[in-house]
């Protein structure tokens, strides 16, 4: 079924404001957010324990090479994300968002906990890093269906004037496990000797994924299916081949999503995947400085991102994209200069500054990823663009950043890299299309602009 056919069946989400509908909406937002929490918890824990994982799974005389190998495994999961996005996105557009998100959540939780059970290189040799890679492949494949599926689910349940807020909130909740993980790793490492932490303590955060996933699964099962998808199914406009429709009718739009999600991913995964080992291994500062400053920076991100999404609901996504990309381009090098100064206060200031700028851009990006597409291909098209961008820029962020530091000898090299990418995206933003439901265009279109 064509995207145009879906366009004719769009309806206003949120006309019924009775108590039942409001409760259903709240359950939907919680159900979308908790799955994202588990997904980002996995990636955050791996990033925060990467220095330990490097010594246990990639032993060698060169710590920098071991850290690069650990970051390469980190990036492997992102290679699988586009494949998972296509697989689960197609399912989500065919059988519904809720059922697919339940499957995805189960896979993410099991594969995360499995890392905590892996034997090390000292115990089984080269099989250890191979098993680690396998776990990361499963994590990446399943995560490919989580974020955009959750954003689509929240977006389609949200009131028309709060879609940016809800989409950003889903991702902001994903930042909470980053802060939680930093404090968790800090607490565990400080509660035992270094030998005990290296021996078994590092496994605890991964195993905690089991009870977290059970709670998240319970909350997700309490949700109702997306009203937009139900309407599409009722009117028989569910796409027979969402992937074919995406490629034939929406490929240009997907490329825009790749660019914008790529910059958001680069900024975000520098926080949760690179800055802690960067502060420890590259700058030689204490782990406490790295974890405390990073937790505060991620905390700022978690609070500021929904606010930026709300601003986008009022002024439009495109304006926010332009301002956010310009801000990242300007502050990235000064932010890294502050982080590398050796002071805890400066490290906090640098990370908070960069977090605010990434939030301004991200406040528009996440809603933009699904808003540009009709209901019948929203999950598939959004997942392809989002996950390709995240694979290309998010998954490679720690590796590329460390490679630049190693080859240039400059601790500011990652800042220049982020600034250059942001500048290119800033130039592209001026040509970016407005969605039919972007607030800036909706004001011109009148009531039709509220159609989902």
UniProtKB/TrEMBL annotation:
SUPFAM superfamilies: MFS general substrate transporter. The keyword Protease does not apply. It comes from the Bacteria. Keywords: Cell membrane, Membrane, Symport, Transmembrane, Transmembrane helix, Transport. Residues 28-437 form the Major facilitator superfamily (MFS) profile domain. Its main location: membrane. The keyword Membrane applies. GO terms for molecular function: symporter activity. GO terms for cellular component: plasma membrane. It is found in: Cell membrane. It is a multi-pass membrane protein. It holds the Pfam family Sugar_tr. The chain crosses the membrane at residues 31-58, 64-88, 100-121, 127-153, 165-188, 200-219, 254-277, 289-308, 320-339, 345-369, 381-400, 412-430. May be a proton symporter involved in the uptake of osmolytes such as proline and glycine betaine. Belongs to the major facilitator superfamily. Metabolite:H+ Symporter (MHS) family (TC 2.A.1.6) family. This is Putative proline/betaine transporter. It comes from Prauserella flavalba.
